[in-house]
Design a protein that fits this description.
binds adenosine-5'-triphosphate, binds magnesium ion, 11 helices, single chain
Length: 382
């Protein structure tokens, strides 16, 4: 790759050189993804633990931009157990959305690509490795087995079609075989009622702009549930809503999860939401998992200085503080990551060993893992 000037800019010639090199890499990956009639054995695999719905295993997802390679997700591993909610937290830009978009194969292509690692998706009778699944097969999985709820409901709704038509289209596409028009409408009304819409017949005929934000988010959830997916990804599902509606939507998600026994991957930067909803918590920082464990592990015994900082920056009702804590500094440039711990420059708990390379994962207990030099004395075999 071309060398950057000390001032940080690239000349046109250097940018051209990078973009040519990028095209070479991405064209090859795209060709592989677009192949037809790929034998299933190429992208089926085995789960490490059959009680998991999804296993991310050393996932690397990069964006090949003209300014250089953005290592958005750089070696992420965590599990989503069946019937459980896993909360993913971290500062803006740490790779939460890119991790979930990798599972849906919805990365902005061709420059966004899964480079290596596995994403094992457990469908009961077989296990797919999404990282290797070709486009053709992915179309049957996306929406059927895994569905996604986005932050802003209007990105998923079409303003010129009525609510009923939009939900029916989803049912028809994924679950419409052998169903008459009346069956599909009945299912649509059932879904609207399931997500707590009282006036389901009325809403059926409305356009998205006639509904409030909370109602729209319910519609999007109804669409995501249309095919009883095994995994629901909710990327900041309540950020655009006020707190009362947020509580209702979270209640709704929790009840629905129990009803259809699916797993939820809940992405948010709101620790309050995580505390309320999640069974397991994954803390991400600069494209890596720095700490993961059960909700109790993380909230009762936060161990990574970054997690401790996140906890300290959360306002607590009844506790008076002069100024809310904020973690100093900012996330390193994802194009130019340091070769030591990514949090070192912002950390106030550093020790001598932190000058070494990026720390490996230490097991604090069966469920609780952390990547930090402060816990190296608990490293196995030491
Ligand atoms: N289409 C893209 N092209 C280039 N870089 C991208 C693209 N999408 C994401 N990135 C980069 O990948 C990194 C991770 O982004 P991501 O959207 O996953 O963050 P996030 O954790 O979801 O943040 P937020 O909380 O703001 O949603 C960021 O540095 C971002 O700039
Ligand atoms: Mg995001």
């Amino acid at each position: 790759m071309a060398k950057k000037h000390p001032e940080g800019y690239l000349t046109a010639k250097e940018a051209r050189k990078i973009s040519k090199a990028n095209r070479k890499i991405t064209n090859e990956l795209e060709k592989k993804r677009k192949r037809k009639n790929v034998p299933e054995s190429e992208y089926t695999t085995q789960m490490k633990n059959p009680e998991n719905a999804v296993e991310f295993d050393d996932l690397h997802t990069y964006f090949f931009t003209d300014a250089g390679t953005v290592k958005s997700v750089d070696g992420v591993s965590f599990d989503v157990p069946i019937g459980k909610t896993v909360g993913v937290v971290g500062e803006s830009g740490c790779g939460k959305s890119v991790t979930s978009l990798s599972l849906m194969q919805l990365l902005q292509r061709p420059h966004g690509q899964i480079l290596s690692g596995e994403i094992r998706l457990n469908l009961g009778d077989k296990v797919y490795d999404i990282a290797k699944t070709p486009q053709e097969a992915m179309q049957k999985i996306r929406g059927n087995e895994v569905s996604m709820i986005f932050q802003e409901p209007m990105t998923s709704l079409n303003p010129v079609f009525r609510i009923g038509e939009q939900i029916e289209e989803v049912i028809e596409l994924h679950d419409g075989e052998g169903k008459t028009k009346e069956d599909i409408k009945a299912r649509c009304i059932e879904l609207l009622e399931q997500v707590g819409i009282a006036n389901s017949e009325g809403v059926y005929k409305m356009f998205p702009h006639e509904l409030s934000g909370g109602m729209r988010q319910r519609i999007v959830i109804a669409m995501a549930l249309a095919c009883n997916p095994k995994v629901i990804i909710a990327d900041e599902p309540t950020t655009a809503l006020d707190v009362t509606i947020q509580a209702q939507i979270l209640d709704l998600l929790r009840n629905l999860k129990d009803e259809i026994n699916s797993s939820i991957m809940l992405i948010t930067h709101d620790l309050g939401v995580i505390a309320e909803m999640a069974d397991y918590v994954v803390v991400m920082y600069a494209g890596r998992v720095v700490e993961k464990g059960t909700a109790e592990d993380i909230f009762e015994h936060p161990s990574h200085p970054y997690t401790i900082g996140l906890m300290a920056s959360k306002p607590v009702v009844g506790k008076e503080v002069d100024e809310l804590y904020s973690i100093p500094g900012k996330v390193p440039n994802p194009i130019n990551m340091p070769n030591y711990c990514y949090f070192k420059d912002r950390c106030d708990k550093c020790i001598e060993a932190c000058n070494g390379e990026y720390p490996c994962e230490i097991s604090l207990s069966e469920t609780h893992k952390v990547s930090c030099y402060r816990y190296y004395d608990q490293k196995e075999g030491k």
